[in-house]
Amino acid sequence: MLPIVREGRIPVFGALAVALALTASEGVWVAAPVWLLTVLLFFLLRELPRPAPASPLAVLSPVDGRIVSVDDCRDPYCERPARCVRIVQDAAGPYGLYAPIEGKLLKVWRGALAGESHQAALWVQTDELDDIVVAVRRPRLPGYLRCRVHAGERVGHGSRCGFAGFGRFLDVYLPVRSRIEAAPGERMRAGQVIGRLLRD
Fold first, then answer.
1. Residues facing residue 131 across a β-bridge
2. What residue ranges are annotated as transmembrane (predicted)?
3. Domain residue ranges of the chain, discontinuous segments joined by +
4. How many CB atoms sit inside 10 A of residue 117's CB?
5. What is the DSSP string of 48-83?
6. 163 with 146: CB under 8 angstroms?
7. What is the pLDDT of residues 98-119, one digit of tens each?
8. How far apart are CA 196 and CA 162, in angstroms?
């Protein structure tokens, strides 16, 4: 199977079919712009393996991107004090959205809470009742967001759970008793450790 995200297969293979048809009927030069579009879509919608570390207490980056800030804040979804790690997604992809930790997906918000600029949020609770929330902000430009998991399902550590394009900001809310291991400005791949849950 080609390494293309599920959400990107129709546009990529659609462009490829048009390029092949144009090449056969009109020639290579007429079809060249469509071939360029096909290559661009293939690049933007690629899916690369993102292995998760074998550390169950590690909280992972849900996207490829750069750490913007690390702050103490209030989690508006769990209504608690929290540590907030803000990440800006790489504009050039890949755009996979991954679970930050293993656990049960307690709730999926589609649409913003009052006073928030998020478009969606995922609340994952571990078997030890630690709560991690990933909130996806509305994009500056039109962008496609798809969440493939539903409340009540279990998600694996670093498992793929959706698609978020293109160049979005995400807020990851961790419990106050967490150690943040990522620093502002640091580049992260999805599945890399941004923090760890602490135990007594």
1. 125
2. 12-45
3. 6-45, 58-197
4. 11
5. ---PPPS-TTEEEPSSSEEEEEEEEEEETTTTEEEE
6. yes
7. 999 999 999 988 876 666 677 8
8. 23
